[in-house]
């Protein structure tokens, strides 16, 4: 009986040691940069082959609850209930309370906030809308709208843009540079000859 137990223990130790060795082997295969561009390109190709691939959404609709599921690229419908931040790129519809992504193309209707870190192409409707660049066409409708650069329309109580091409319609409109029109009680185009003008302001 003692010999049998010793044999089982020896097999377990051998198996654990093999798994540990395989893990170290896979880590060693991910080589560090050498300073030589050609060598680093070859190493990068090897590392990409060894490294685990990202989990990409394989279904046309995603029901997002808190931070699940983690899918870098989603095409279809995302239900952000109560919020979702783990989808890097979303193409389609975003519906819920709070939606966040790096790239968005489509229609986003969330109660509290729409947040696109980089590029937006489409429509945002929420109390608070924010985006990086909307140069391919964007529309923001909400209480507070802000964007770094937009080619489109902002409609809300407060509209803020860095570089704007199109229209701003609201109580307070502000842009660093503007090629278009502002309609509101307070209109500010900071690089214009007439920076402040109530009711209507025009930028060229």
Overview of the structural elements:
This protein is α/β, with parallel strands linked by helices and 204 residues long. It folds into two domains: 2-50; 61-203, no CATH class. Helix content is 21%, strand content 58%. The protein contains two helices and six strands, in the order H-H-E-E-E-E-E-E. Strands 1, 2, 3, 4, 5 and 6 form a six-stranded mixed β-sheet that branches. It is elongated and about 50 Å long. The termini are far apart. The model is unreliable at 1-31 and 50-54 (pLDDT under 50).
List keywords for this structure.
single chain; 2 helices; six-stranded mixed sheet; alpha/beta
Poorly predicted regions are 1-31, 50-54
Helix-residue proportion: 10-25%
State mean pLDDT (0 to 100 scale): 79
SSE-based structural type = alpha/beta
Largest sheet: 6 strands, mixed
The beta-strand count equals 6
3D shape: elongated
Instruction: Please indicate the percent range of residues in DSSP E strands (runs of 2 or more).
Output: over 45%
Number of alpha- plus pi-helical segments: 2
How far apart lie the N and C ends?
Answer: 92 Å
């Amino acid at each position: 009986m003692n010999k049998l137990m010793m044999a089982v223990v020896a097999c377990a130790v051998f198996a654990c040691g093999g798994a540990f060795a395989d893990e170290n082997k896979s880590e060693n295969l991910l080589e560090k940069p050498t300073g030589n561009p050609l060598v680093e390109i070859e190493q990068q190709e090897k590392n990409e082959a060894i490294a685990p691939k990202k989990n990409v959404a394989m279904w046309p609709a995603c029901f997002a609850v808190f931070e699940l599921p983690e899918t870098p690229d989603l095409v279809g419908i995302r239900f952000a209930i109560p919020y979702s931040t783990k989808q890097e790129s979303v193409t389609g519809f975003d519906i819920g309370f709070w939606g966040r992504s790096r790239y968005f193309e489509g229609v986003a209707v969330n109660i509290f906030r729409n947040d696109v870190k980089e590029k937006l192409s489409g429509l945002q409707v929420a109390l608070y809308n924010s985006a990086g660049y909307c140069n391919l066409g964007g529309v923001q409708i909400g209480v507070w709208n802000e964007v770094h650069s937009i080619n489109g329309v902002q409609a809300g109580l407060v509209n803020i843009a860095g570089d704007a091409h199109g229209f701003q319609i609201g109580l307070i409109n502000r842009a660093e540079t503007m090629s278009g029109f502002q309609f509101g009680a307070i209109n500010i185009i900071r690089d214009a000859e007439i920076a402040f003008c109530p009711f209507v302001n025009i930028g060229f």
